[in-house]
Design brief:
Length: 385
Amino acid sequence: MEFNKTEKTSVPSNNRRSFLKKAGIAGAAALVAACDSGAQENTGGGPAILSKKRNLKMVTSWPKNFPGLGTGAERLAKRIETLSDGQISIKVYAAGELVGALGGFDAVSQGKADMYHAAEYYWQGKSQGFNFFAAVPMGMTANEMNAWVRFGGGQELWDELAGGFNVKPFMAGNTGVQMGGWFQRDINAIDDFQGLRIRMPGLGGEVMKRLGAAPVTKQGGEIFQALSQGNIDATEWIGPWNDLAFGFHTIVKNYYYPGIHEPGTTLSLGLNKDLWEDMSEREQEIVRAASAAENDIMFSEFTLNNARALNTLVNDHGVLLKEFSQDILTRLASVSAEVLTETAQNDELTGRIFKSFSEARTNGIRWGEIAEQAYMQARAAAEKS
């Protein structure tokens, strides 16, 4: 097949300079007009340019540069800045630098900070409903939480709850299944919880209380000292990776599992709602995408590093890995159900959150039994044979 040759159009030499000058001016004018349009119309539908430079403050509940949590918050802030071509700049403050570890919610709600990175159960004093968007005893795994929040109505309920406090929330990290904790003494029966002073926040702490323990809430940076000085008898924190970093193994050797109180703890990014509503669609999508990315990346990071750190704790530091007995786990499940049912009765919105959460959890259990759980049992059996 032959293609028609394009005829050349000649421009007289004495007009060529004028022609090029006019073309250059027209092109530049079109570019300026496009940029002006993108800057003036804050719709996100024009050229890839943001309307204003934003210098924002993120407060966190984590020690500075703490593995996984602190570094995850830094990574999230950096990703937002990169995706926005530097138009959104975020300065990250560790716990205690701008506000206390548990002060992020109020700071963001009141506009004293622009965003926080934390765990929602820290805000249970505002509403018991916040617990369900972090972790609750015998709750959902990371995959199940992602499914519920993204596709099961969880995000809409979360928006309604947090929106009442002038906050817009997103999932922005997950630690996976946590450990049961570090115990100075053996836990062989339910009676061994009697009088036990244990660091455990959220509804998990309420479960411990009903078993006769004395739960306390302490921020991460306070736990080592409390444990080393004998102010508490036991503590949970997160899992092997972070527990190794804090050095709990230098004080206690009994390391119990599983952590039924936090089976897949979601970390969150909360933005001041006024700030969120002032953002263009493109800015909002940048925040949304960056949060979703960090949610998945952090979970992957914890999965790998927890496995490595557990080997180090057991093989290099003589930590005694112990499993709660089935009798203890059955009792923990029973008390957990009581606590969640009573929590749902606090107010109408928490009741709706609990109903939606419970339906998603039931579906997750049913599917998990014939999917991941069945496969993992088969894999484990094959590994041992």
